[in-house]
From TrEMBL:
Keyword Metal-binding: no
Claim: Glycoprotein is one of the keywords in the record: yes
BP-aspect Gene Ontology terms: G protein-coupled glutamate receptor signaling pathway; regulation of synaptic transmission, glutamatergic
Domain G-protein coupled receptors family 3 profile: 1022-1265
Biased amino acid composition, Low complexity: 1299-1321
Protein name per UniProt: CELF35-1
Length: 1404
């Protein structure tokens, strides 16, 4: 129907300058002028041009549906609203130079026509006119283009505008979304955008003190959803996941989500349909709706939204429309007065009010009640006034008007800047609904201009007593800044918080993701969990990780079964209440490298894998523990990583090697405990002479054998030989003893038993996996009755075995389990595997439980996981007392405290002993005969019965027991692991079995000291020869000094107590001797002597120096009197205590079981080396460091004491040099590589010992060698002028105590040579002033005394000496020398008591 011309006529009349009469009369006159039957094409554009029009806006409007006949009433309202706003603007007198016109074209809701009509409008204003064709007096100036309100048409127009500089205005949410999606510049929005809704949402979520939401979208990959998520993340609000509305398990996915807040990005129809579903409204969550099309829920829709039984709370973010009553009256008046005469209004009446032209009797009140204002009417009026205000500003400025005379990028920039700075105030001549408001624009988050004054409100809808209740939570008004009015939250809403837990992948922890192989990662019950317990298993093997031939399926099944049933097994304990965690299985493909990579990845990186159609993301630190059932080297490598301390997570394993570093934990009894139980049994049964059969390729068997060999010899069991079994070829083999202990896998044990010759009195003892040998020899098991097995106690749960017996692929839909069933049965459980196997499984396939054997490891893996979960429960209850889910403290401290808890757990030590015998039904099976624990020892529950009835003894009888005579296990604990390169003579070269004695294999330690010196690897380094020569020379020098002192003592040249000096010389000799041990190759004894002698030698040296320095300090403080005497034994007690502490510390090194081990230099060279690390060696000398600091401190205090040839000076020099030597060697020792560390120690020992020998003994040796004693007559000098061997001491006190430092005379010496005091006055002989003479002194004075003179000086007779010596009472405490100025010849004289005082004093 061609009705557009009627609309054109209507609009032309409305936009013409109105007279003073009513506007309705103007419309009627124009309609009458055009006539009702003048039709034109529906696509013909129309213009509304007021008189003297200078500015123009226009665009395309979807006036009809895509059939071009059905009218869209809301678009009619929008065009009339624009006309109504222009009428108010153009009729103002002050707007005569800025009147605004409208260009409109119908698109029939078609995107192609939208672009066509827009281009027509641009052509009408000369936008595409070449510059050469432009006139100086152009028509109306282009201010902007109006975008169509529907999404598709705006997308079509936006692609054109993305390369054009035209201001474009959007008055609907759909058009704004389309233009922002295409990043169209110069966009003006008068309708709330997605950014506005999200900004209001952020304010609401912050008020609720939450930061985590789940997003529900329409599933169409709408860019709006991505934009919403991006805005939320920029505001530090995390999105747990985005779920499409058509998800088959939408309700379950929302329930499993961590978030208590759901944000939907849907239109109104999708929202109403979703929240009315029973599975949705039954959730106790908050649902916040963002309208994608800007639609609002009216009051009736709000009340009907929720079911009466709904627990869901809905918050609708929706625009708040301004009521326009003046426009309503105007619009209804136009309809009532003109609908009978004009087809456009007739069509509107027929479509909206469902009446024809003949029978329509419209009542104004009825029309007003049924009137519904278009939701974009307000936005279209704001848009019109925005352009009108810009026209007013440009029209008032000639320069601006000239810039915009033609459409250009400069004019566009001017228009946008004008809009951004504009502040228009509505007055009384404008629409009265906007009176008092101001129209402004600002840059929003989408980088477009947003109109201020747009309102968005949050309406909460919930049930109270099964009745719907609505309340407004928030009112958000756009602006810069926006106006936000918040309502107080209900108590229920305050409790409903949605906090993003740490270590969640969606909580900002994963900027980079690593995608891992989904075929190697299996999450039991796949969904996101806050915590994970990771199990590492060797599910596959081989180069391509495809084979499951050696898979022990009981281990992963024990892991998942324990996790699933842990809470149910102990219901009375309330374990891990409201704490949810996932069990993640990782297949290491029997590769230690992949196992470590998996753990390191879990600790340091975010990784993702797909399972059951869901992307599972694991973030660092969310794995609270690891359970490992790896084998061999893979397990050792993994334990090494955990022992390094790089992670604070715990490792639960099922190996028998217990970690000394306490970072990996196992419930399995240790190899040592199992070996002790075995040895107790062997001694009880008198089986002391045994043979070992070892699977050398199996690390677990090797570990058990290593523990047994370490303990056997010390506990009276002789290991005669070791049979290394392995490979695939079998030949007859016979043990040389009556008892064979089998350390091997079950298959190797079966092969060995079959290959060995059956003897009636021979007993086989199975260790480890060898227990299940009968599974691989089902037809020969009756041939070996009486076989003994020593195993950890069976702790497997009965319900676990029952579960294994009934489990099928249908009841356990785990991919790793399906792979095992497919491999065992040769059929497929999935279409992917059907290509490989060619046939499908039934799904009822069961496990062969008998083929799994005893399942010892499965039981102890389950026990270890239970211990970990108990520890986690204890920490959880401690850190989260409320137990209502995870708390932040548990995330931050949980792993470390779990590790601490596991360190406190005890280790299993129960061992059971079985005998393989037939039962009452003649079926061979194991029967329990004994058990062993550390506390109770071996307890026999049944008597051992040899299956053949022949008693078995295997005692050690010479000469067969050579191992007791020659075997030195403690010196060579690892010898038996290095096999002989050649086979013994007479061995069968076709056999895979190697025979070797328990001792005497390839050399690791040396058989003698001579061999050690002559064939050691130390000879590979030439500098060692230089060091040996130097050390030898210095040792000889030190011994020579010691001999010299002893000779002088014997000749009475040196008298007194010389024990301290001799002790110091012994300490120096020990230091020199210790250097030898750091040159030669390390052995167990050498390593012990290294650490013990190094500290002991230094302790003796610095202990003597501390005692000597203390003596000198006391001598200076107490003086030389004899009234107060300090016993010499006080200093010896000090020295004994210092050395005793070091001896006590050294005892621990004697108790170390092994001080050496095998180090691998390269792939072909192995060397013995000390087990002590570099840091441990430095720490072992910490006590010596303390002594150095003490000696240095006392020497610094004594630095000004000048006694005994300035002895304190030499003490200080030697201590300081030794201190810097220690600083240097410790630094180099910690920095240099291993091959240079021993050389550093040798240099350090030689340097310090030489410093002490040179500084402390050098001056004294010079005196001993340069002077000789001479006996002369003693004469008394009443006025002596004594000069000390030291520098002269002035102002000596009148009375001082005697100190060992000042007098080295013994009591006998004093009695023979005279007292130091006179009998009458008791005045000291070294007092200043004349010495009174009396008879007692004369009677007690000696007749002869000894003086020292240089050997090179020629002396005359004693008469000459008489002329120069005039001494009264001898000074027994201090040796003196005659001053050179007093006599021409130097004569040194000392008292008989200490002939050489300076030497005595230094050696005390």
């Amino acid at each position: 129907m061609m009705i557009v011309p009627y609309l054109v006529a209507l609009v032309l009349l409305i936009l013409s300058p109105p007279p003073a009469t009513s506007s309705t009369a103007n419309i009627s006159s124009l309609i009458e002028a055009l006539g009702p039957n003048k039709l034109c094409s529906v696509y013909d554009p129309f213009k509304v041009l007021p008189e003297n029009n200078k500015f123009q806006i226009g665009g395309s409007f979807p006036l009809h549906q895509d059939d071009c006949t059905t009218l869209r009433p809301d678009t009619v309202q929008e065009i009339v609203a624009i006309q109504w706003a222009l009428t108010h603007w153009n009729q103002k007198d002050e707007n005569g130079d800025c009147k605004l016109g409208l260009y409109a074209g119908d698109t029939c809701s078609r995107s192609a026509e939208s672009l066509s009509q827009s281009l027509r409008f641009l052509d009408s204003v000369g936008y595409h006119e070449p510059k050469e064709c432009r006139t100086e007096t152009p028509g109306a100036k282009l201010l902007g283009l109006i975008a169509p309100k529907d999404y598709e048409s705006s997308m079509s127009l936006g692609k054109f505008l993305s390369v054009s500089a035209i201001p474009v205005a959007a008055y609907s949410s759909e058009s704004v979304n389309a233009l922002t999606e295409l990043d169209v510049e110069n966009t003006i929005a008068t309708s709330p955008t997605i950014g506005v809704y999200v900004e209001a949402l952020i304010r609401l979520i912050n008020q609720m003190r939450s930061n985590l939401v789940t997003v529900v979208d329409d599933g169409a990959q709408n860019p709006v959803v991505k934009k919403v998520i991006s805005y939320l993340r920029d505001a530090d609000i995390f999105v747990s996941e985005s779920i499409p509305i058509d998800h088959p398990f939408l309700a379950q996915a929302l329930e499993d989500s961590d978030s208590s807040i759901v944000v939907s990005v849907l239109n109104k129809q999708q929202l109403l349909k979703t929240v009315k579903h029973p599975s949705i409204y039954a959730m106790s969550k908050m649902w916040i709706s963002i309208p994608t099309e800007g639609e609002a829920l009216d009051e009736s829709e709000q009340l009907e939204l929720l079911h009466k039984d709904a627990k869901l709370e809905v918050v609708s973010l929706q625009p708040k429309y301004k009521e326009l009553p003046q426009f309503r009256d105007y619009f209804i008046r136009v309809l009532r007065n003109n609908f009978k005469n004009y087809q456009l209004l007739t069509s509107y009446i027929e479509q909206v009010y469902n009446c024809t032209n003949e029978d329509c009797n419209l009542n104004k009140d009825v029309m007003m009640k049924t009137y519904v204002q278009a939701r974009t009417a307000e936005a279209s009026i704001r848009m019109t006034y925005a352009f009108a205000a810009v026209a007013q500003i440009i029209g008032a400025n000639k320069e601006y008007e000239k810039t915009c005379s033609h459409a250009s990028s400069e004019c566009t920039e001017l228009i946008m800047e004008t809009l951004e700075t504009m502040d228009y105030a509505f007055n009384k001549q404008d629409p009265p609904e906007f009176a008092g408001e101001r129209l402004q624009f600002y840059r929003g988050t989408e980088n477009i201009l947003l109109a201020s004054g747009m309102q968005v409100e949050a309406i909460e809808i919930y049930n109270q007593d099964k009745e719907p209740v609505t309340s407004r939570l928030l009112s958000f008004t756009t602006g810069n800044p926006p106006t936000v009015i918040m309502s107080s939250l209900r108590s229920a809403d305050q409790r409903l918080r949605s906090i993003c837990a740490p270590y969640r992948p969606f909580c900002g922890q994963c900027p980079n993701l690593q995608i891992v192989n989904s075929d190697h990662h299996f999450l039991s019950i796949p969904r996101h969990y806050p915590l994970y317990l990771v199990g590492l298993f060797d599910l596959h093997s081989g180069q391509t990780c495809q084979s499951m031939a050696h898979t022990d399926i009981s281990l992963p099944m024990a892991f998942v079964h324990t996790v699933w049933t842990f809470k149910q097994r102990f219901p009375q304990l309330g374990l891990l209440k409201d704490l949810d965690f996932g069990a993640l299985l990782i297949d290491s493909c029997s590769s230690g490298k992949q196992a470590i990579e998996s753990v390191v990845r879990s600790e340091t990186q975010c990784f993702r894998f797909n399972q059951a159609g869901r992307n599972i993301t694991i973030v660092p630190k969310s794995v609270f523990g690891y359970a490992s059932a790896l084998h061999g080297d893979s397990q050792e490598s993994l334990k090494g990583y955990f022992s390094s301390g790089d992670t604070d997570a715990s490792l639960v394993s099922v190996d028998s090697e217990h970690s000394a570093l306490q970072r990996s934990f196992t419930a399995l009894p240790s190899s040592r405990n199992q070996a002790l139980a075995l040895l107790k049994l062997l001694n009880r049964m008198q089986w002391q002479f045994v043979t070992a059969a070892l699977s050398e390729q199996d690390p677990e068997s090797l570990s058990l054998f290593r523990a047994f060999e370490r303990l056997a010899l010390d506990r009276g069991v002789c290991l005669a030989e070791v049979l290394n079994i392995g490979g695939s070829r079998l030949d007859n083999i016979r043990s040389t003893t009556n008892v064979t202990i089998v350390f091997s896998t079950a298959r190797d044990a079966a092969d060995y038993l079959i290959a060995s010759k059956i003897r009636g009195n021979h007993v086989n003892v199975m260790m480890g996996e060898a227990h299940d040998w009968y599974l691989h020899a089902p037809n020969n098991k009756e041939l070996f009755p009486g076989t003994v097995s020593v195993q950890p106690r069976n702790i497997l749960y009965g319900d676990f075995r029952e579960w294994l017996e009934t489990t099928t692929p249908l009841t356990l839909p785990e991919l790793w389990y399906w792979s095992y069933i497919e491999s065992r049965y040769g059929c497929a459980l999935s279409q992917k595997s059907k290509v490989i196997y060619g046939k499908m499984c039934t799904g009822d396939e069961l496990l062969n439980i008998e083929s799994l054997g005893r399942m010892t490891k499965a039981g102890y893996l389950s026990r270890g996981v239970e211990r970990f979960l108990f520890a986690m429960d204890s920490v959880y209850k401690s850190l989260c007392p409320a137990q209502n889910g995870l708390c932040l403290e548990f995330y931050e401290q949980g792993r470390r405290q779990i590790l601490t808890q596991l360190k406190k757990t005890s280790t299993e030590d129960d061992v059971e002993i079985y005998e393989f015998l037939p039962d009452i039904n003649n079926h061979f099976t194991y029967h329990l005969i004994a058990n062993w624990t550390l506390t109770t020892g071996l307890r026999m529950t049944n008597q051992y019965r040899n299956g053949n009835g022949v008693p078995t003894e295997s005692k050690c009888q010479p000469p067969m027991c050579k191992c007791f005579l020659d075997g030195d296990f403690f010196q060579r604990p690892l010898d038996s692991f290095v096999f002989r390169p050649d086979e013994p003579e007479g061995s069968d070269q076709s056999s895979y079995i190697k025979r070797q004695p328990a001792f005497g294999s390839e050399k690791i330690e040396y058989q003698s000291v001579f061999e050690h010196i002559t064939t050691g690897h130390w000879r590979d380094h030439p500098h060692n020869y230089v060091l040996l020569a130097l050390i030898t020379v210095l040792v000889v020098v030190a011994i020579a000094v010691l001999v010299l002192v002893l000779v002088k003592l014997y000749l009475r040249v040196v008298k007194g107590n010389q024990s301290l000096g001799i002790s110091l010389l012994i300490g120096i000799i020990i230091l020199y001797s210790t250097a030898f041990f750091f040159v030669f190759d390390p052995t167990d004894s050498v390593c012990r002597l290294r650490v013990i002698l190094h500290g002991l030698g230094y302790t003796i040296c610095f202990g003597v120096m501390i005692a000597k320095a203390t003596q000198l300090r006391n001598a200076e403080t107490l003086g030389f009197g004899t009234a107060i005497h300090i016993s010499f034994w006080n200093y010896w007690l000090l020295l004994f205590f210092i050395v005793g502490v070091q001896i006590a510390l050294s005892i621990s090194w004697f108790l170390e079981p092994f001080m050496s081990t095998i180090g691998v230099i390269d792939t072909n060279v192995q060397r013995m080396m000390c087990t002590m690390g570099k840091v441990e060696f430095v720490v072992s000398n910490f006590y010596v460091m303390i002594l150095i600091f003490m000696a240095l401190f006392i020497s610094m205090l004594n630095r000004n004491i000048k006694r005994n040839y300035k002895e304190t000076k030499w003490l200080l020099y030697s201590t300081v040099l030794c201190f810097f030597t220690w600083v240097a060697w410790i630094t180099l020792y910690l920095v240099l590589d291993h091959e240079f560390r021993d050389t550093v120690i040798v240099v350090e020992l030689v340097a310090c010992a030489t410093i002490l020998l040179g500084f402390l003994f050098g001056p004294k040796i010079y005196i001993l060698l340069s002077y000789e004693p001479v006996v002369v007559a003693f004469k008394r000098d009443p006025f002596p002028n004594h000069t000390d061997l030291f520098e002269k001491d002035d102002d000596l006190p009148s009375q001082r105590a005697v100190s060992p430092a000042s007098s080295t005379s013994s009591s006998s010496n004093r009695s023979s040579s005279g007292s130091s005091y006179t009998s009458s006055s008791k005045r000291p002989v070294n007092a200043v002033g004349p010495l009174p003479l009396n008879k007692n002194v004369e009677d007690q004075s000696p007749i002869f005394h000894t003086v020292m003179r240089k050997k090179t000086k020629v002396r005359r007779s004693n008469s000459e000496h008489d002329t120069i010596m005039n001494v009264g009472i001898p000074m027994t405490s201090v040796p003196i020398i005659r001053s050179p100025s007093a006599r021409d010849e130097k004569v040194h004289r000392v008292a008989i008591s200490p002939p050489i005082r300076d030497y005595n004093s230094i050696n005390h």
